Protein backbone atom coordinates (compact mmCIF):
# COMPACT_ATOMS: atom_id res chain seq x y z
CA UNK A 1 0.00 0.00 0.00
CA UNK A 2 1.43 3.38 -0.97
CA UNK A 3 2.37 5.74 1.85
CA UNK A 4 0.57 9.05 1.31
CA UNK A 5 1.33 10.54 4.72
CA UNK A 6 3.76 13.07 3.29
CA UNK A 7 1.00 14.71 1.33
CA UNK A 8 -2.28 15.07 3.28
CA UNK A 9 -4.00 16.49 0.22
CA UNK A 10 -3.15 13.39 -1.78
CA UNK A 11 -4.31 11.20 1.10
CA UNK A 12 -7.66 12.97 1.31
CA UNK A 13 -8.19 12.98 -2.43
CA UNK A 14 -7.15 9.43 -3.25
CA UNK A 15 -6.26 7.21 -0.34
CA UNK A 16 -6.41 4.15 -2.58
CA UNK A 17 -3.94 5.46 -5.15
CA UNK A 18 -2.04 2.64 -6.82
CA UNK A 19 1.50 3.41 -7.95
CA UNK A 20 1.96 3.35 -11.71
CA UNK A 21 5.00 2.18 -13.66
CA UNK A 22 5.80 5.79 -14.54
CA UNK A 23 5.96 6.69 -10.85
CA UNK A 24 8.77 4.20 -10.29
CA UNK A 25 10.59 5.44 -13.38
CA UNK A 26 10.37 8.97 -11.96
CA UNK A 27 12.06 7.68 -8.79
CA UNK A 28 15.13 6.88 -10.86
CA UNK A 29 15.59 10.53 -11.88
CA UNK A 30 15.63 9.84 -15.64
CA UNK A 31 16.87 13.34 -16.55
CA UNK A 32 19.90 12.96 -14.30
CA UNK A 33 20.34 9.39 -15.49
CA UNK A 34 20.56 10.56 -19.10
CA UNK A 35 23.74 12.55 -18.34
CA UNK A 36 25.15 9.59 -16.39
CA UNK A 37 24.51 7.27 -19.32
CA UNK A 38 25.93 9.65 -21.89
CA UNK A 39 29.15 10.48 -20.05
CA UNK A 40 29.71 6.81 -19.17
CA UNK A 41 29.20 5.86 -22.83
CA UNK A 42 31.66 8.53 -23.96
CA UNK A 43 34.22 7.35 -21.43
CA UNK A 44 33.86 3.81 -22.74
CA UNK A 45 34.08 4.76 -26.44
CA UNK A 46 36.98 7.18 -25.91
CA UNK A 47 39.06 4.53 -24.12
CA UNK A 48 41.98 3.08 -26.15
CA UNK A 49 40.70 -0.51 -25.73
CA UNK A 50 38.01 -1.90 -28.03
CA UNK A 51 34.95 -3.33 -26.29
CA UNK A 52 32.52 -5.72 -27.98
CA UNK A 53 29.31 -3.82 -28.81
CA UNK A 54 27.12 -6.21 -26.82
CA UNK A 55 29.33 -5.93 -23.72
CA UNK A 56 29.40 -2.14 -24.16
CA UNK A 57 25.60 -2.03 -24.37
CA UNK A 58 25.19 -4.18 -21.26
CA UNK A 59 27.79 -2.15 -19.35
CA UNK A 60 26.11 1.18 -20.13
CA UNK A 61 22.72 -0.34 -19.25
CA UNK A 62 23.95 -1.51 -15.84
CA UNK A 63 25.62 1.86 -15.17
CA UNK A 64 22.27 3.49 -15.99
CA UNK A 65 20.47 1.16 -13.58
CA UNK A 66 23.04 2.01 -10.90
CA UNK A 67 22.47 5.71 -11.52
CA UNK A 68 18.73 5.17 -11.20
CA UNK A 69 19.24 3.25 -7.97
CA UNK A 70 21.13 6.24 -6.56
CA UNK A 71 18.22 8.48 -7.51
CA UNK A 72 15.70 6.23 -5.76
CA UNK A 73 17.78 6.12 -2.58
CA UNK A 74 18.18 9.89 -2.72
CA UNK A 75 14.42 10.41 -3.03
CA UNK A 76 13.78 7.95 -0.20
CA UNK A 77 16.03 9.79 2.23
CA UNK A 78 15.20 13.31 1.08
CA UNK A 79 11.43 12.89 0.96
CA UNK A 80 11.00 15.30 3.89
CA UNK A 81 13.00 17.99 2.10
CA UNK A 82 11.28 17.33 -1.23
CA UNK A 83 7.88 17.86 0.41
CA UNK A 84 8.90 21.43 1.34
CA UNK A 85 10.64 22.62 -1.82
CA UNK A 86 8.49 23.91 -4.69
CA UNK A 87 10.89 22.39 -7.24
CA UNK A 88 10.52 18.87 -5.82
CA UNK A 89 7.10 18.70 -4.17
CA UNK A 90 5.68 16.90 -7.19
CA UNK A 91 8.12 13.98 -6.93
CA UNK A 92 6.63 10.49 -6.40
CA UNK A 93 7.09 10.23 -2.62
CA UNK A 94 6.00 13.70 -1.39
CA UNK A 95 3.07 13.67 -3.83
CA UNK A 96 1.94 10.35 -2.34
CA UNK A 97 2.33 8.28 -5.51
CA UNK A 98 5.03 5.96 -4.09
CA UNK A 99 5.75 4.97 -0.49
CA UNK A 100 9.13 5.51 1.16
CA UNK A 101 9.55 1.79 1.86
CA UNK A 102 8.94 1.00 -1.80
CA UNK A 103 11.53 3.54 -2.88
CA UNK A 104 14.10 2.14 -0.45
CA UNK A 105 13.47 -1.44 -1.58
CA UNK A 106 13.74 -0.45 -5.24
CA UNK A 107 16.96 1.50 -4.67
CA UNK A 108 18.68 -1.28 -2.74
CA UNK A 109 17.60 -3.98 -5.18
CA UNK A 110 18.74 -2.08 -8.25
CA UNK A 111 22.02 -1.14 -6.54
CA UNK A 112 22.97 -4.73 -5.87
CA UNK A 113 21.78 -5.94 -9.27
CA UNK A 114 23.62 -3.26 -11.28
CA UNK A 115 26.96 -3.66 -9.50
CA UNK A 116 27.01 -7.46 -9.69
CA UNK A 117 25.94 -7.50 -13.33
CA UNK A 118 28.50 -4.86 -14.34
CA UNK A 119 31.25 -6.86 -12.64
CA UNK A 120 30.15 -9.96 -14.56
CA UNK A 121 29.67 -8.19 -17.89
CA UNK A 122 32.86 -6.11 -17.81
CA UNK A 123 35.28 -6.52 -14.91
CA UNK A 124 35.32 -6.51 -11.11
CA UNK A 125 37.01 -3.10 -10.90
CA UNK A 126 34.19 -1.46 -12.87
CA UNK A 127 31.58 -3.18 -10.69
CA UNK A 128 33.26 -2.04 -7.49
CA UNK A 129 33.65 1.48 -8.90
CA UNK A 130 29.91 1.61 -9.58
CA UNK A 131 29.20 0.36 -6.04
CA UNK A 132 31.42 3.08 -4.60
CA UNK A 133 29.68 5.72 -6.71
CA UNK A 134 26.22 4.66 -5.48
CA UNK A 135 27.48 4.66 -1.89
CA UNK A 136 29.06 8.08 -2.32
CA UNK A 137 25.87 9.64 -3.70
CA UNK A 138 23.39 7.93 -1.37
CA UNK A 139 25.38 8.02 1.87
CA UNK A 140 28.23 10.55 1.69
CA UNK A 141 26.28 13.22 -0.21
CA UNK A 142 22.58 12.60 0.51
CA UNK A 143 22.74 11.43 4.13
CA UNK A 144 25.72 13.46 5.31
CA UNK A 145 26.99 16.39 3.26
CA UNK A 146 23.73 17.76 1.90
CA UNK A 147 22.34 18.69 5.32
CA UNK A 148 25.62 19.47 7.03
CA UNK A 149 27.84 21.78 4.97
CA UNK A 150 27.49 24.50 2.31
CA UNK A 151 30.20 22.61 0.43
CA UNK A 152 27.67 19.80 -0.09
CA UNK A 153 27.41 20.24 -3.83
CA UNK A 154 31.18 20.63 -4.23
CA UNK A 155 32.19 17.35 -2.60
CA UNK A 156 28.96 15.54 -3.44
CA UNK A 157 29.37 16.48 -7.10
CA UNK A 158 32.00 13.76 -7.34
CA UNK A 159 29.23 11.16 -7.55
CA UNK A 160 27.95 12.65 -10.79
CA UNK A 161 31.48 12.93 -12.14
CA UNK A 162 32.42 9.26 -11.71
CA UNK A 163 30.41 7.75 -14.64
CA UNK A 164 32.92 8.58 -17.42
CA UNK A 165 35.63 7.01 -15.26
CA UNK A 166 33.45 3.91 -14.85
CA UNK A 167 32.94 3.75 -18.60
CA UNK A 168 36.71 4.02 -19.12
CA UNK A 169 37.24 1.30 -16.49
CA UNK A 170 34.82 -1.00 -18.34
CA UNK A 171 37.16 -0.88 -21.33
CA UNK A 172 40.56 -0.70 -19.64
CA UNK A 173 40.02 -2.15 -16.18
CA UNK A 174 41.66 0.87 -14.60
CA UNK A 175 42.12 4.65 -14.40
CA UNK A 176 44.19 7.06 -16.51
CA UNK A 177 44.95 10.75 -16.89
CA UNK A 178 42.23 11.03 -19.53
CA UNK A 179 39.56 9.50 -17.31
CA UNK A 180 40.56 11.75 -14.41
CA UNK A 181 40.27 14.80 -16.66
CA UNK A 182 36.77 13.74 -17.72
CA UNK A 183 35.94 13.38 -14.03
CA UNK A 184 37.30 16.86 -13.29
CA UNK A 185 35.35 18.33 -16.20
CA UNK A 186 32.07 17.29 -14.56
CA UNK A 187 33.26 17.78 -10.98
CA UNK A 188 34.30 21.43 -11.46
CA UNK A 189 31.23 22.21 -13.57
CA UNK A 190 28.77 21.00 -10.93
CA UNK A 191 29.15 23.80 -8.32
CA UNK A 192 28.63 26.79 -10.66
CA UNK A 193 25.76 24.92 -12.32
CA UNK A 194 23.88 24.37 -9.05
CA UNK A 195 24.87 27.66 -7.44
CA UNK A 196 23.45 29.56 -10.41
CA UNK A 197 20.16 27.72 -9.83
CA UNK A 198 20.35 28.45 -6.10
CA UNK A 199 20.72 32.19 -6.75
CA UNK A 200 17.17 32.46 -8.03
CA UNK A 201 15.74 29.64 -5.86
CA UNK A 202 17.22 30.60 -2.49
CA UNK A 203 13.91 30.44 -0.65
CA UNK A 204 13.41 26.77 -1.53
CA UNK A 205 16.68 25.71 0.08
CA UNK A 206 16.18 28.02 3.07
CA UNK A 207 12.67 26.69 3.75
CA UNK A 208 13.93 23.11 3.51
CA UNK A 209 16.84 23.76 5.87
CA UNK A 210 19.46 22.80 3.28
CA UNK A 211 22.74 24.71 3.90
CA UNK A 212 23.23 25.76 0.31
CA UNK A 213 25.89 28.44 -0.13
CA UNK A 214 23.26 31.08 -0.92
CA UNK A 215 21.61 30.39 2.45
CA UNK A 216 24.72 30.19 4.64
CA UNK A 217 26.96 32.81 3.00
CA UNK A 218 24.57 34.90 0.91
CA UNK A 219 24.26 35.62 -2.77
CA UNK A 220 27.30 37.92 -2.97
CA UNK A 221 29.63 35.17 -1.77
CA UNK A 222 27.92 32.67 -4.07
CA UNK A 223 28.61 34.93 -7.06
CA UNK A 224 32.30 35.00 -6.17
CA UNK A 225 32.39 31.22 -5.86
CA UNK A 226 30.74 30.78 -9.27
CA UNK A 227 33.41 32.94 -10.89
CA UNK A 228 36.25 31.17 -9.05
CA UNK A 229 35.11 27.68 -10.02
CA UNK A 230 34.47 28.74 -13.62
CA UNK A 231 37.99 30.18 -13.86
CA UNK A 232 39.40 26.89 -12.55
CA UNK A 233 37.19 24.85 -14.87
CA UNK A 234 38.32 26.48 -18.12
CA UNK A 235 41.96 25.25 -18.09
CA UNK A 236 40.82 21.73 -17.23
CA UNK A 237 38.58 21.74 -20.29
CA UNK A 238 41.37 23.08 -22.49
CA UNK A 239 44.03 20.68 -21.16
CA UNK A 240 41.68 17.79 -21.93
CA UNK A 241 41.82 18.89 -25.55
CA UNK A 242 45.54 18.14 -25.89
CA UNK A 243 45.32 14.58 -24.52
CA UNK A 244 44.53 11.41 -26.47
CA UNK A 245 40.76 12.02 -26.14
CA UNK A 246 40.97 15.55 -27.52
CA UNK A 247 41.53 17.03 -30.94
CA UNK A 248 40.74 20.10 -33.07
CA UNK A 249 36.96 19.58 -32.95
CA UNK A 250 36.94 19.22 -29.19
CA UNK A 251 39.29 22.18 -28.77
CA UNK A 252 37.09 24.44 -30.89
CA UNK A 253 34.04 23.48 -28.83
CA UNK A 254 35.94 23.96 -25.56
CA UNK A 255 37.27 27.39 -26.50
CA UNK A 256 33.82 28.70 -27.48
CA UNK A 257 31.95 27.16 -24.54
CA UNK A 258 34.46 28.21 -21.91
CA UNK A 259 34.63 31.70 -23.35
CA UNK A 260 30.84 31.99 -22.99
CA UNK A 261 30.91 30.36 -19.55
CA UNK A 262 33.60 32.74 -18.29
CA UNK A 263 31.71 35.71 -19.71
CA UNK A 264 28.52 34.60 -17.93
CA UNK A 265 30.32 33.99 -14.63
CA UNK A 266 31.96 37.41 -14.82
CA UNK A 267 28.58 39.04 -15.44
CA UNK A 268 27.14 37.22 -12.43
CA UNK A 269 30.09 38.31 -10.26
CA UNK A 270 29.47 41.97 -11.16
CA UNK A 271 25.80 41.80 -10.23
CA UNK A 272 24.13 43.07 -7.07
CA UNK A 273 20.83 41.94 -5.63
CA UNK A 274 18.95 45.11 -6.52
CA UNK A 275 19.77 44.70 -10.20
CA UNK A 276 19.20 40.94 -10.16
CA UNK A 277 15.80 41.17 -8.52
CA UNK A 278 14.75 44.00 -10.83
CA UNK A 279 15.19 41.85 -13.94
CA UNK A 280 14.15 38.58 -12.24
CA UNK A 281 17.68 37.14 -12.25
CA UNK A 282 17.88 37.18 -16.03
CA UNK A 283 21.69 36.79 -16.17
CA UNK A 284 21.68 33.99 -13.60
CA UNK A 285 18.97 32.11 -15.46
CA UNK A 286 20.83 32.53 -18.74
CA UNK A 287 24.05 31.19 -17.17
CA UNK A 288 22.16 28.22 -15.73
CA UNK A 289 20.66 27.39 -19.13
CA UNK A 290 24.12 27.53 -20.71
CA UNK A 291 25.43 25.22 -17.99
CA UNK A 292 22.83 22.62 -19.04
CA UNK A 293 24.57 22.34 -22.42
CA UNK A 294 28.15 22.83 -21.23
CA UNK A 295 28.97 19.28 -20.13
CA UNK A 296 26.89 17.56 -22.81
CA UNK A 297 28.62 19.46 -25.63
CA UNK A 298 32.12 18.83 -24.24
CA UNK A 299 31.45 15.11 -24.04
CA UNK A 300 29.76 15.11 -27.43
CA UNK A 301 32.96 16.59 -28.86
CA UNK A 302 35.04 13.88 -27.15
CA UNK A 303 32.72 11.28 -28.67
CA UNK A 304 33.05 12.76 -32.16
CA UNK A 305 36.85 12.72 -31.88
CA UNK A 306 36.76 9.06 -30.79
CA UNK A 307 34.41 8.04 -33.62
CA UNK A 308 36.54 9.79 -36.26
CA UNK A 309 39.86 8.30 -35.14
CA UNK A 310 39.46 4.99 -37.04
CA UNK A 311 39.21 7.06 -40.22
CA UNK A 312 42.29 9.11 -39.40
CA UNK A 313 40.22 12.25 -38.86
CA UNK A 314 39.92 12.52 -35.06
CA UNK A 315 42.58 13.48 -32.56
CA UNK A 316 45.83 15.28 -33.20
TrEMBL record:
Q: Where is the signal peptide?
A: none
Q: In which pathway does it act?
A: Porphyrin-containing compound metabolism; heme O biosynthesis; heme O from protoheme: step 1/1
Its record classes its membrane topology as: Multi-pass membrane protein
Q: List, alphabetically, the Gene3D superfamilies matched.
A: UbiA prenyltransferase
E.C. number, please? 2.5.1.141
Is Acetylation tagged as a keyword?
Answer: no
First-listed, main subcellular location of the protein, grouped into a coarse class: membrane
Q: Which family, according to UniProt?
A: Belongs to the UbiA prenyltransferase family. Protoheme IX farnesyltransferase subfamily.
Q: Which PANTHER family does the annotation name? A: 4-HYDROXYBENZOATE SOLANESYLTRANSFERASE, PROTOHEME IX FARNESYLTRANSFERASE, MITOCHONDRIAL
Subunit info? Interacts with CtaA.
Give the misc comment. Answer: Carbon 2 of the heme B porphyrin ring is defined according to the Fischer nomenclature.
Q: What does this protein do?
A: Converts heme B (protoheme IX) to heme O by substitution of the vinyl group on carbon 2 of heme B porphyrin ring with a hydroxyethyl farnesyl side group.
What is the protein name stated in its UniProt record? Protoheme IX farnesyltransferase
Its gene name is ctaB
Amino acid sequence: MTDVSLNPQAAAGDAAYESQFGDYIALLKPRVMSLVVFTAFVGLVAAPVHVHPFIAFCAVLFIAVGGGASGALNMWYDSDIDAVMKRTVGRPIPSGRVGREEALALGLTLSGFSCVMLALAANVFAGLFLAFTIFFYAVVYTMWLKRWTPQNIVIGGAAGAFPPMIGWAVATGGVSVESVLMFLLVFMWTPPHFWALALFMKEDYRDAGVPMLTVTHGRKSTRKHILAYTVLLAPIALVTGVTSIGGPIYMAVAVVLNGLFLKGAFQIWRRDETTAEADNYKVERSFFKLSLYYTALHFAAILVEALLKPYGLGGW
